[in-house]
UniProtKB/TrEMBL annotation:
Its cofactor is [4Fe-4S] cluster. Gene3D superfamilies: 1.10.150.530, Aldolase class I (3.20.20.70). One of its GO terms (biological process) is rRNA base methylation. The keyword Secreted does not apply. CDD domains: Radical_SAM. S-adenosyl-L-methionine binds at G186, E187, S220, S243, L244, H245, N323. This is Probable dual-specificity RNA methyltransferase RlmN.
């Protein structure tokens, strides 16, 4: 039996919710043309609409002057329906970090974050409204899963960020989105088809998509092993980020409940296979929690686990100072313990960095803003 079709029920979204309107970002170029023809509109206009959306980053129909005025509203509503409305935008780091709380068509709330650095701009996007993985230290995980997002709802977060950069709304002058990380709300691999669709739209050449490099895209997962294996077959060399958070099954069963289904060894092996097939280095995400998973012996164990799969530098550890949620027992590690953790990993030949934390003053941990609304 195909293991990908036997995922546990926890990955099914709640029933009874409607689907978001179909948008050109949900569709291939041929499907966009067919969609307009279904509506009794000229199919060739699909390419013009794609150019406005992906290349010109236009969101005002009045600016689409190459479309006939008599058909413009029909064309726009046919392929460019409104998908999400910004409820709040919060800024930090002198405006170079912008977090947006979005309201979707059915009232679901999701978040995206734009982070501008010297030389690059990264969009952190959500792939689900809520999350069904139930990791106890995560704000999103505590709210449960509302529903999967559509491909277009995922893409729209990036396009909205691209618009704000192109219009000079972010300090530093006009720019472009260079990197996308699927590290916002939700478990990307539990919404696999929509996420892969979004990756394809992001990497399709303009005007069919945004024309980004797959190497600038990172897809994270808490360890849905069949989906990691499937991602290795897609032929899209994105970076895989595995949210491990513990090197031993006893602790990881508590921190990442899906570990009761796929253990550390099987999960890391799937990540190594992804690196081996794609020749792309895997990132191991490890949220540092005081007195929970930051002991020196766990650093040694983590290095031993990762070093068990070849020595060609297939992996990089990204330590994340925990962004605590109000009233939580989960807090960031002591800086001295963090430094010792890094030292021990590096002593065993594991490439390690500590993530540059941004946005703590604007409820930077994904899910915090939605939870307070």
């Amino acid at each position: 039996m195909d293991p990908i079709k036997t995922l546990p029920l926890v990955f099914e979204e709640p029933k009874g919710r409607g689907k978001p309107p179909r948008h050109l970002a949900d569709l291939t170029p041929a499907e966009r043309k067919a969609r307009l023809e279904e509506l009794g509109l000229p199919g060739f206009r699909a390419k013009q609409l794609s150019t406005h959306y992906f290349e010109r980053l236009v969101d005002d129909p009045a600016e689409m002057t190459d479309l006939p005025a008599a058909q413009r509203s029909e064309l726009v509503s046919g392929l460019l329906p409104e998908l999400m409305t910004p409820l709040r935008v919060m800024e930090a780091d002198k405006g170079t970090t912008r977090k947006t709380l979005w309201k979707l068509f059915d009232g679901s709330l999701v978040e995206s974050v734009l982070m501008r650095y010297p030389g690059r701009t990264t969009m952190c996007v959500s792939s689900q409204a809520g999350c069904g993985m139930a990791c106890p230290f995560c704000a999103t995980g505590q709210g449960g899963l509302q529903r999967n997002m559509s491909t277009a709802e995922i893409v729209e977060q990036v396009v909205a960020g691209a618009r704000s950069l192109a219009r000079g709304e972010v300090p530093g002058g006009p720019g472009r989105v260079s990197n996308v990380v699927f590290m916002g709300m939700g478990e990307p691999m539990a919404n696999y088809n929509a996420v892969i669709g979004a990756v394809r739209r992001l990497t399709d050449k303009a005007p069919d998509g945004l024309g980004m490099s797959a190497r600038g895209i990172t897809v994270s997962t808490v360890g849905l092993v069949p989906r990691i294996r499937q991602l290795a077959t897609e032929g899209i060399p994105v970076t895989l980020a595995l949210s491990l958070h513990a090197p031993d099954d006893e602790l990881r069963d508590e921190l990442v409940p899906i570990n009761t289904r796929w253990k550390v060894g099987e999960t890391v092996e799937a990540a190594w296979n992804y690196a081996n097939v794609t020749k792309r280095r895997v990132s191991i995400e490890y949220a540092m929690m005081r007195g929970i998973n930051d002991q020196a012996w766990r650093a040694d164990l983590l290095a031993d686990v990762l070093n068990g799969y070849g020595d060609w530098g297939w992996v990089h550890v990204n330590l994340i100072p925990l962004n605590p949620t109000p009233g939580s027992k989960w807090t960031a590690s002591d800086p001295a313990d963090e430094r010792e953790f890094v030292r021990r990993l590096e002593a065993k030949g594991i490439s390690t960095t500590v993530r540059d934390t941004r946005g703590s003053e604007i409820d930077g941990a994904c899910g915090q803003l939605a939870a307070t609304e």
